[in-house]
């Protein structure tokens, strides 16, 4: 009699399961987690070694420590310039790769950023190492996807596996790693992606934290003293953290915009930012580097109110100078650092006012860390879980949840984008729930304009314009001066309005619309279409942002419509392929 539970049948069933699509994804997720954990360990060792090179020998307090962050910035700037064919990469690029490029990121860009972050942090850059960990994990996931020539849906899964492993290994928080990917990278929970991400997160944590004992922050244990009164106090803290989150985001991007305008070679800008950090760090060395030890001191109630407020302001500035000038690193721990200072200062005040009914300041610093991260990253669940997994303590979970939700709500109301998606918004992408919500916002002018532009000179005549219209079949043309600089635009409508019958010798300079409305290569088609509609015109010259007289191309209303139609057809086709 046949036994359906025979060894042969069981072996065949296991073999079939392991070689099915879910089985392959799960097996590779384990490998991605292991390699990500090992990478985090290697990253930590390299960081400690490079820090030892620059900071050992008792140099703290010497005036020349001001220049160490500048040296790191100079290295970052030079390497970035030498390899300028590679774009800068951060968590925003991982989100973009997931939402717009089928889960693909450029591996060389990701790992170059990881290496640059080691130098940036080791020389005193005021940034975190978690974002480079996410990039490293995402890069490892992409390597595995390429190795098996995976379809788009698996690229996305493997990228998520690496990113979850990076967060999990960095914080010893496997659940937070999973939720970070769901909340920030993917924007939604899918059953087929959940198990691989969990496996990767677990194995990355096992390798980094249990085997090699990489631990980030030592966190004290606190609880509620008076649940009724303190709930109101934590509500106020959540509001303050939401406001601080927006200040952090806006300060960063104002600094970035300022550095973009500085008339200095791009290779030297990170060094200038590093010099500012060095100057701040000379008097307050606590703002240099990652700051785990400083956060630990705040949680242990070892800082005065004055010092907490000073470090709150200076950390925002030092972080903004570091990233805004072009140095490498992450924003997760700086957000937590700012939250710890704010929470610690707030806790000091309320404990002074209500000593019998409030916990010491360290409890408020702990909640402030999570709430500020929730506001900057728009990831309240991740923020709660990181702190919960760090403390392994349930006593503060209610105020933690309360403050994170309030902070996230306030930050959303004051500033629509997170610290990650603000970059994408500036590129014309609006990402929500891991997807582009407007197709035309994801399409840039540079990829859809026409560069073979027919132009006409200011000195030409109406007759020349008519001849050009007949030969080219176009109804409008950019107008150039003798130096080939853009001066205006002339259309058939201008001819009808400004040229009387028989006056074909009228100069183009008398007909054209001078100082025309223009478009830029890095703008989205959504912005261009709105501009065309607002001005009721059919075409825009495309010019350089640095020189608006330099003509790069032209884009018309019909170009926008054709590009939109093509993208819709392509999107439908890709969905059919994935299904």
Describe this structure in words.
The chain is mostly helical and 579 residues long. It is built from 23 helices and 8 strands. A hairpin with a 2-residue loop joins strand 1 and strand 2. The longest helix is centred in the N-terminal third of the chain and has 35 residues. It is elongated.
Cα-atom radius of gyration: 28 Å
| Low-pLDDT windows of residues | 11-15, 572-579
Structural class: mainly alpha
Q: Whole-number average pLDDT?
A: 86
Q: What does the main sheet amount to?
A: 4 strands, mixed
- Classify the oligomer: single chain
Number of strands: 8
Present the secondary structure layout:
Elements: H1 7-18, H2 21-55, H3 68-82, H4 91-100, H5 107-122, H6 130-147, H7 152-171, H8 174-186, H9 191-211, H10 227-261, H11 269-283, H12 292-299, H13 305-324, H14 332-353, H15 361-377, H16 380-391, H17 397-414, H18 421-426, E1 431-432, E2 435-436, E3 456-457, H19 462-472, E4 476-480, E5 486-491, H20 492-498, H21 508-511, E6 513-514, H22 525-535, E7 539-543, E8 551-556, H23 557-578
Parallel strand pairs: 3-4
Antiparallel strand pairs: 1-2, 4-5, 5-6, 7-8
Helix pairs in contact: 2-5, 2-6, 2-7, 2-9, 3-5, 3-11, 5-6, 6-7, 7-8, 7-9, 8-9, 8-16, 10-13, 10-14, 10-15, 10-17, 11-13, 12-14, 13-14, 14-15, 15-16, 15-17, 16-17
